[in-house]
Design goal:
Radius of gyration of chain A: 35 Å
Strand order of the largest sheet of chain B: 16-37-36-35-17-31-34-33-32
Strand content of chain A: 15-25%
Number of domains of chain A: 2
CATH topology of the largest domain in chain B: Calcium-transporting ATPase, cytoplasmic domain N
Membrane topology (chain A): Multi-pass membrane protein
Largest interface: A-B, 112 and 121 residues
Distance between the termini of chain B: 27 Å
Family (chain A): Belongs to the CDC50/LEM3 family.
Number of helices of chain B: 39
Order of helices and strands of chain A: HHEHEEHHHEEHHEEEH
Keywords (chain A): Membrane, Transmembrane, Transmembrane helix
Structural class of chain B: alpha+beta
CATH architecture of the largest domain in chain B: 3-Layer(aba) Sandwich
Largest sheet of chain B: 9 strands, mixed
Helix content of chain A: 25-40%
Radius of gyration of chain B: 37 Å
Distance between the termini of chain A: 82 Å
Structural class of chain A: alpha+beta
Number of strands of chain A: 8
Oligomer: heterodimer
GO cellular component, one term (chain A): Golgi apparatus
Number of strands of chain B: 37
Strand content of chain B: 15-25%
Organism (chain A): Corchorus olitorius
CATH superfamily of the largest domain in chain B: Calcium-transporting ATPase, cytoplasmic domain N
Shape of chain A: extended
Helix content of chain B: 40-55%
Strand order of the largest sheet of chain A: 1-8-3-6
């Protein structure tokens, strides 16, 4: 044999080496997952299925719609718009001047109860066209300052109502607190004071966790321009429920805020006299002010919309179910589906 | 494609020597291939001419550069055995490698820099920065930075881990040992300390640490064998040579000094250019004189070489680059829709700012005192009342616009890009793990090299396939021979079971070839008889030629049985291997080959022949020859080559009859699909030999133009041959190819075969692979000039039109079977293509090809393959796929929209250039029909869904803005808007994008026409986009206005209604997805319901933070019935229109996929014929 023999056998050994790892098969391990064969359910829209789905929706929706509509109709609501009526005749052309002028701005309104109103009767004030969701407005508050007396000077987000002229912080700071609603209502029925409970009108969670028990109003409404209600500096913020309610800014430009609760039934045809202080300036932006007395149902206030919406959707689905049934019976175009 | 690429440079491929010629023929000059690169082509350099390593004579190389001196500026000077001097002037790289990208210090900046190359991240960043401006601060700092930071962090952790692994493997690599000459002794040295100029000794089976020029080897003639499997994947041995002049030097004893002047490091693994000055002589070094890092030394006891390139400058390291990057069709379409979305975003922002402008103008007198605006700052009465946070009307509008962009930013679904990447990774995982695409024989899984174009696999219209190695196995098997005009192809199966083939005894051991070859008993008789008769002497010469005229290296391999050894024939050309095995089977066993002689065992008698000269195969001559000195001192030249090239050098006067019959046999062989080679020989007279010898010596020592000179010498001697006969080799079809082609065709994919083989072979393979059927009319175009091309094209177009219209008519009237193809097949050869491609005839060819159901191109050169792909790609919007296995397919693979490489016998170049790689052609069927279909459907749906998902949220925000004085307040908590596309809704779409299946694998394979869904773009198109957008508008309106009207004039506060909106949107989009999910497995369930639950948890957590405005809101509002009724109403009302449309569509105009789904669900009620009938007819003329 040639001198190559040893080396060729070495070469042979080498290739045997290289053959060894080949035995480690790279065959992918079989599993239902890797082969994408996991057990699965494959729903298919068969006519039967579709029709039953529509029927189901209509069966659920129509009763809900009826119930909601009834609930909404059960709510008794008295709305009294007073922002124009409470301006004396001589100021009718310059409402702004009236509201900015000092002095008593009390105004008397009478409300007739149409239907029996069961307690509790909620007293709201409703503002229209007031953008509590305006970006400048919602940002102008300091949550840490409301909670914690040590963060009193955390007022950077409150401009321009952050500090007084001498540089001390305003508590509570910011536009929201500054513009606190300050109309007041006094109700009397048959010349008797009708008590309005103003306790517990705010969320408990807010009183407990957002507004501090040891935070007291400071330098509030001391500036040149008064925005709204004054706060009693001896009462901690957690008990200033009007403020707490006001500071839960409304989502929409037309909103109600809870003023208090009347905890007795009002009989039909009873006449309530309201003495209100028309202090709050909505005249600068043509805002409306309304006083609302309302009962509630399980669905909240008076609003027919949801009931109508449910009835519409339910009716539509019923109609669709019906037409699909008819079409399916008359012209089963794809007979392979059962 | 570079249209000016010199086609003249390309030589059409000879079929017979195909395998070797395929690579050798790839003689695109570097320049041409540079121009050829269309994308970022990493492998263009590989296109340059590879070298065959044969005898020492042919080691020169052919670059035009070799003619001239290497410029001193372009050269690197390596002083042999003097690494100090070598490295004193230039800092050559050391041999330590660093594939890790980062070090601890550079990680952060570099990683961030690389991550911000993505447009998506830049968009995120710009928005986040805008948000930091105090005037624009829509979101809090944390909320705006968090998502970007999260994504960056995840990517950074992933990168860091990968880099750590690279560092670790670098460390192992750098600390390997090699023996290096230090102070005249070989000492062990770590790889990382090796420097350029050092002399290194490598022993058998060691890996080579750096690129080295060979000085000497254990072989007296200076031969060394290396295996380059790590470099190019080819497992056969390659021969390298040490220069004669350095061969005898022993570095330990005498100091070797010299200077190597070589070219700068480059990535061309088949090229090397250098001069070596040693002992005052100047030698030129070529690619056959270096061994490259990563190769292994085999079959050679040791070699000594000098390091010329080290570390990162080695060719192996320069070539280690990633996969090519392409962009999928779906993504490009999607980008157009994203432009629409951007316009929509701008429109929204404009609406908001215009409204804001009007509002500000209208209320300009009230702004100072408005309790919710308070423009004037009254806090300091001393100063004049100044504006607070108000920059004038114009600026306020501008700020409003920018803030709107920030708030509505997710209108552009940037998260979609990230989700798409994740989905593609998931899809790739499943494709790789598919057991149906695992190739047992090569032990290779499917490979996903490009991660960007998974969904393109579902839209392929044209498949361009190579033949050899792609349709066929590229395992050559000798079938029959025609010797001296006699055809030996009769009854060969008879006796092969009984005997184990030919073997020889050696020292009591049995030596037999590794592969058995079927033999023809008659021919075996002749071969055994020796030179008794005239016939048997021709047979003798024929087999001698087969055994000798090649570059095969025999390796003797031990087996488990100690008495049996196997001879393994290693060579670069499978054809040659087949021929040598055949010769061995007939008793002409090649035992040993060195550069100077060969030993052949002829019928048990060992004979030694001197190899006096060898002329390598080259693509000009298309043949090779060897000059043998016989023991009886006679000298003969044996030549084998492709028929065309052989018949031109055969002495036609000698024996016309033999020539004619051989030609006839050749024709019949190639019509059987066999690859043919012609063998010829001639005895050389002494004077002739002397003349040749001196010419050969002169040529092989020439410094300039050596290759051309050698070629000339070869051509001079290779003439006046007489023909011995012809061999026929079968290249078997791969398993499942006919079925695969059938499936692809049924799926409406046009299969074009582009091959270097000759026409007859190609046609016969066409028949055996069912590409061609007897029903088809063949149009054959073989032209030698432009005019005749034009004429035949014109005729062909007329003819094909006639045929297609007739068949179309029959199709429409009596089309009972869906599979009624337009039976026209176009067969065109490379010569004609030379005149057609890059000229005005292209258009005609395209028209013609469109009318044909099959196109076969034979004898095409690599660049022509790319040209044909470009022909289709540039004229249609249809997707093209190219599949091939060899280096000659690289250009085609890179040109096509999707390139698939077959990891087969011919190295890895095709794989390296491809987007997907697999082991067998038939895997194309599951790849396209199953995975392609799924991927396309999933991705198409996912894009639409993501558009919808983001737009619906943005629109809800937008509607609210209209009720806030256009001041971009959001009722939805800022954290919720940030988490919306990160947590609330991202997982289900990704899971569905990875896991949903519209149809089962079985169904897709049974009804290939279902693939048409992708071709017709059913899952994603402009119409669907607009329908989705209208649906989005409706859904967002429902989500917004139901709570708005239900809560109008109530005590609702912003965070509470915001929570309602958030929850409603999230549940809605998840249920919308749930409505469209086709297959519900537990993962889908977990993802969808889990997302809704996760959203609830997130909202609860956010609302439990007392520092936020919305503290406790969700608990307060969830106590009310109104909340739940709103939620229910929203979801039902929002989904009804979509549901109705979907039902109507599915019941009354079902698509193929829908029909198949129903058939799958209710198999009993439908026969398969009915299913097919209802689907779109196959090869339905594409809907335009």
């Amino acid at each position: 044999m040639s001198p190559n023999t040893p080396s060729s056998s070495a070469g042979g050994a080498g290739s045997a080496d290289s053959a060894a790892p080949r035995r480690n098969s790279k065959r992918p391990k079989y599993s239902k997952f890797t082969q994408q064969e996991l057990p699965a359910c494959k729903p298919i829209l068969t006519p039967r299925w579709v029709i039953s789905a529509f029927m189901l929706v209509s069966i659920v929706f129509i009763p809900i719609g009826v119930v909601s509509l009834f609930a909404s109709r059960d709510v008794v609501e008295i709305i009294d718009r007073y922002e124009t009526a409470c301006i004396p005749d001589n100021f009718k052309n310059d409402k702004l001047a009236y509201i900015q002028s000092p002095g008593d701005k009390s105004c008397n309104r009478t409300i007739t109860v149409k239907k029996l109103m069961k307690q509790p009767i909620y007293v709201y004030y409703q503002l229209d066209n007031f953008y509590q969701n305006h970006r400048r407005y919602v940002k102008s508050r300091s949550d840490s300052q409301l909670k914690d007396p040590s963060s009193e000077n955390d007022v950077s987000s409150c401009k321009p109502e952050d500090v007084t002229q001498n540089g001390t912080s305003i508590v509570p700071c910011g536009l929201i607190a500054w513009s606190l609603f300050n109309d007041t209502y006094d109700f009397s029925l048959n010349n008797q004071q009708l008590p309005v409970n103003k306790k517990g009108i705010s969320w408990k969670s807010d009183r407990d966790s957002k507004f501090g028990r040891d935070v007291f109003p400071k330098n509030f409404q001391n500036g040149t321009l008064r925005g709204g209600k004054l706060l009693d500096p001896t009462v901690p913020l957690s008990e200033q429920e009007d403020l707490i309610v006001w500071m839960r800014t409304a989502a929409l430009p037309t909103f109600r805020k809870l003023y208090g609760k009347i905890e007795r039934d009002l009989q039909p045809n009873e006449v309530i006299h309201v003495t209100l202080q028309n202090n709050y300036n909505t005249y600068s932006f043509n805002g409306k002010k309304k006083l609302v007395l309302s009962t509630t149902s399980w669905l909240g206030g008076k609003n027919d919309f949801l009931g109508i919406a449910y009835l519409t959707v339910g009716g539509l689905c019923f109609f669709l179910a019906l037409s699909f049934t008819v079409v399916y019976l008359v012209k089963p175009s794809s007979e392979h589906i059962t | 494609m570079d249209s000016k690429s010199p086609l003249e440079n390309l030589h059409s491929i000879e079929p017979a020597i195909s395998s070797s010629s395929r690579r050798s023929n790839f003689s695109i000059q570097s320049k041409a291939s540079g121009g050829n690169s269309i994308r970022e082509v990493n492998f263009s350099d590989l296109g340059s001419k590879p070298v065959r390593y044969g005898s020492r004579g042919a080691d020169s190389e052919t670059y035009s550069m070799s003619q001239k001196e290497i410029n001193d500026e372009d050269a690197r000077l390596v002083y042999i055995n003097d690494s100090e001097k070598t490295n004193e002037r230039f800092e050559f790289a050391g041999n330590s490698i660093r594939t890790g990208k980062y070090s601890i210090l550079t990680f952060l900046p570099r990683n961030l820099f690389e991550q911000f190359h993505r447009v998506a991240y830049v968009y995120f960043l710009v928005i986040a920065i805008l948000n930091q401006l105090p005037q624009l601060a829509v979101f809090g700092r944390g909320a705006s930075i968090m998502p970007l930071a999260f994504v960056l962090l995840i990517t950074a952790v992933k990168d860091a881990y990968e880099d750590y692994r690279r560092h670790r493997s670098d460390k192992i690599e750098n600390n390997r040992l090699a023996s290096v000459l230090v102070n005249d002794q070989f000492q062990q040295k770590k790889w990382k300390n090796i420097q350029v100029g050092e002399v290194i000794k490598i022993h058998a089976n060691e890996t080579i640490p750096c690129d080295m020029a060979l000085l000497s080897t254990s072989d007296p003639t200076g031969v060394a064998y290396v295996q380059t499997i790590n470099l190019d994947g080819e497992s056969n041995l390659k021969t390298r040579y040490a220069k004669q002049e350095t061969l005898l030097k022993i570095p330990e004893k005498e100091k070797v000094t010299g200077l190597i002047k070589c070219e700068k490091p480059n990535r061309n693994i088949y090229g090397f250019q250098a001069n070596m000055e040693i002992d005052g002589k100047r030698l030129s070094l070529g690619p056959s004189n270096i061994i490259l890092r990563g190769c292994e030394l085999k079959n050679t006891a040791w070699v000594v070489g000098v390091a010329v390139y080290a570390g990162r400058e080695t060719k192996a390291m320069l070539n280690s680059s990633g996969a090519p990057s392409k962009r999928s069709r779906l993504e490009s379409q999607m980008n157009l829709e994203i432009i629409f979305l951007s316009l929509f975003l701008i429109a929204l922002c404009t609406v908001v700012s215009v409204c804001a402008a009007v509002w500000l103008r209208h209320h300009r007198d009230e702004l100072d005192y408005l309790p919710f605006y308070r423009r004037k700052d009254f806090s300091d009465p001393d100063e004049d009342e100044k504006d607070y946070n108000y920059y004038g009307w114009g600026m306020e509008i501008f700020f409003t616009f920018l803030m709107a962009v920030i708030v509505f930013q997710i209108m552009i679904p940037i998260s979609l890009y990230i989700s798409m990447e994740l989905v593609r990774v998931g899809q790739a995982y499943f494709m790789i793990r598919d057991t149906e695409m695992y190739d047992e024989s090569s032990n290779s899984r499917f490979q996903c090299r490009a991660l960007n174009i998974n969904e393109d696999l579902g839209q392929i219209k044209y498949v361009f396939s190579d033949k050899t190695g792609t349709l066929t196995e590229n395992k050559m098997e000798f079938q029959c021979a025609s010797i001296w005009g006699v055809d030996y192809s009769g009854g060969k199966v008879t006796s092969q079971e009984q005997h184990d083939g030919y073997f020889v005894q050696e020292d009591g051991k049995v030596l037999r070839p590794k592969m058995k070859v079927k033999t023809d008993p008659e021919l075996l008789q002749f071969a055994r008889r020796g030179k008794e008769t005239k016939e048997s002497s021709h047979v003798h010469d024929f087999f001698l030629a087969l055994a000798a005229c090649n570059t095969i290296v025999p390796l003797i391999v031990e087996t488990s049985d100690p008495t049996v050894k196997l001879i393994d024939y290693q060579g670069e050309s499978p054809d040659e291997q087949a021929l040598v095995y055949a010769a061995a089977a007939y008793g002409f066993m090649l035992i040993e080959r060195t550069s100077g002689h060969i030993v052949i065992d002829i019928q048990g008698e060992r004979q030694r022949f001197n190899v006096l000269g060898m002329h390598e195969f080259d693509s000009d001559r298309k043949r090779m020859s060897v000059i043998l000195g016989f023991p009886d001192k006679s000298v003969k030249i044996f030549v084998k080559g492709a028929d065309t090239s052989m018949f031109s050098v055969i002495d036609r006067s000698y024996n016309m009859n033999v020539l004619r019959t051989t030609e006839a046999h050749l024709y019949s062989y190639s019509s059987l699909g066999l690859r043919t080679l012609v063998v010829g020989m001639r005895e050389l007279s002494t004077s002739e030999f002397e003349e040749w010898h001196s010419a050969f010596e002169a040529a092989s020592t020439a410094l300039m133009g050596r290759a051309a000179l050698l070629r000339k010498v070869a051509s001079n001697i290779e003439n006046n041959l007489y023909v011995l006969g012809a061999s026929a080799i079968e290249d078997k079809l791969q398993r499942g190819v006919p079925e695969a082609i059938e499936s692809l065709r049924t799926a409406g994919i046009k299969v074009w075969v582009l091959t270097g083989d000759k026409q007859e072979t190609a046609i016969s393979i066409g028949y055996s692979s069912k590409l061609l059927t007897s029903k088809m009319t063949q149009i054959i175009i073989n032209s030698n000039s432009k005019d005749s091309c034009r004429k035949s094209l014109e005729d062909a177009i007329i003819m094909s039109k006639k045929l297609t219209t007739i068949s179309g008519a029959t199709n429409s009237t009596g089309g009972t079977s869906g599979v009624d193809l337009t039976p026209v097949a176009l067969i065109i050869d490379g010569t004609s293509l030379v005149y057609i491609l890059d000229s005005e005839l292209e258009e005609m060819l395209f028209q013609l090809a469109c009318n044909c159901s099959v196109v076969l191109c034979c004898r095409v050169a690599p660049l022509q393959k790319a040209g044909i792909v470009a022909l289709v790609k540039n004229r249609t919007s249809d997707m093209t796929l190219a599949i091939g296995d060899g280096a000659n397919d690289v250009s085609m693979i890179q040109m096509a929209d999707v390139g698939v490489g077959i990891s087969g016998q011919e190295g890895r170049q095709a794989v390296m250039a491809s987007d997907f790689a697999m082991g067998q052609f038939r895997f194309l069927v599951p790849l396209l029909l199953v995975h392609g279909h799924w991927n396309y459907q999933r991705m198409g749906y996912m894009i639409l869904y993501n558009f919808y998902r983001n737009a619906v949220f943005v629109l809800v925000l937008f509607w609210y803005v209209l009720f806030t004085c256009f001041t971009l307040t959001t009722a939805i908590n800022e954290w919720s808007s940030v988490l919306y596309s990160v947590i609330y809704t991202s997982v289900p779409t990704i899971v569905v994008g990875i896991l949903d299946k519209d149809l089962s694998r079985r169904m897709l394979l049974n009804y290939p026409q279902l693939y048409g869904a992708g071709q017709r773009q059913e899952c994603y198109n402009r119409r669907l986009f607009w329908i989705t957008m209208i649906d989005t508008l409706w859904q967002s309106a429902v989500v917004f206005f139901i709570p708005l009207l239900a809560y109008w004039g109530s005590t609702i506060d912003a965070p509470s209604i915001g929570d309602l909106w958030t929850l409603a949107v999230v549940i809605l989009v998840n249920l919308h997805l749930a409505m469209d999910v086709i297959r519900w497995n537990w993962i889908t369930h977990a993802a969808i319901w889990g997302s809704i639950i996760a959203t609830c948890i997130c909202i609860i957590v956010i609302d439990a933070l007392p520092s936020l405005v919305g503290y406790w809101a969700i608990f307060e509002i969830a106590k009310t019935g109104l909340f739940w009724l709103c939620l229910l109403a929203i979801i039902v009302a929002a989904l009804i229109p979509r549901f109705v449309v979907k039902v109507l569509y599915q019941l009354y105009t079902p698509c193929d996929v829908q029909i198949a789904r129903e058939a799958e669900k209710f198999p009993s009620q439908m026969t398969s014929g009915a299913v097919e009938l209802e689907m779109n007819a196959i090869l339905d003329p594409p809907r335009r």
